[in-house]
Amino acid sequence: MAAELFVLFVLFALAAPLVLWLLIAGETSNPTVVDREEAERIARERGGLDETDRRESPDRRTDRDDRTDRDEWGVDSRWDE
To answer: I need a surface site. Which of 2, 25, 26, 48 has the fewest CB within 10 A?
Structure first.
């Protein structure tokens, strides 16, 4: 019984990577090669960014830094006294 389970485990251990490799090889065997404009058009059709979204910064935070000395680790003004 233990020998059969071991053989089954070894077969599965060898078959799983082979199946994954075959799936990946089949998916990447014939890639579509397009120029940049065509790729951008396809990306927009699939839900990519609009032209108007490019002009705005994705980071909408302000340039202010509200942190003080009390917000930092290991800083204690009482140590200098």
So the answer is: 2
